[in-house]
Design goal:
Elements (H helix, E strand, L loop, with lengths): L5 H31 L7 E9 L3 E10 L2 E2 L3 E12 L10 E5 L3 E2 L2 E2 L6 E2 L4 E6 L7 E7 L16 E8 L1
Antiparallel strand pairs: 1-2, 2-9, 3-8, 4-5, 4-9, 4-10, 6-7, 10-11
Length: 165
């Protein structure tokens, strides 16, 4: 019996096994990186002022940073607020969470278009006094649904900005 032929067969089997294990490991790593990638939240800088043309409003201006899809933004505050343009924000419609894409009678309350870009301003009318109100602007990976208050779906929501007037 010739025993020398067994050695090359075992070597080939071991090489194939090592290649299969390596391919499975690399494939598993590649697919796990794709699944765990979280969307990057937008980066913005804002400024705020109080306007007082009879009814004080908080004017929030997007100063710099990423343009953000309006339907993924919402605002919360330490008191109920209503979001809109300077002529639309009204504390009679204030709620705990206001979607930037909120509309009344099919007309958007926030006059910035589909994205909130640098140089554009939104207005908040808080229920009560503006002094001491803490405002948080949040971004969600999914569009915010409904109005007064908007409904945030999914667990991927990020606070972009927080300030106190």
């Amino acid at each position: 019996m010739d025993k020398r032929a067994v050695s090359p067969v075992i070597a080939v089997v071991l090489m194939v096994a090592i290649v299969v294990v390596l391919a499975a490991t690399v494939g598993a790593l590649a697919f796990s990186f794709g699944d765990s990638a979280q969307p990057r939240e937008p980066q913005i800088q804002v400024s705020h002022t109080v306007t007082d043309d009879g009814d004080p409003l908080i004017a929030i201006t997007h100063e710099s940073g990423d343009a953000i899809a309006v339907d993924q933004l919402y605002v919360t505050a330490s008191t109920n607020v209503d979001i809109g343009s300077k002529s639309v924000a009204d504390d009679k419609h204030a709620s705990e969470r206001e979607a930037f894409a909120e509309s009344s009678s099919g007309n958007p309350q926030v006059d910035v278009g589909d994205t909130w870009d640098a140089g554009e301003t939104v207005y908040l009318d808080p229920d009560g006094d503006v002094e001491g109100v803490t405002v948080r602007i949040n971004w969600n990976t999914q569009p915010v649904q409904d109005v007064n208050p908007g409904k945030v779906e999914g667990a991927d929501s990020y606070e972009l900005v927080e300030f106190t007037v």
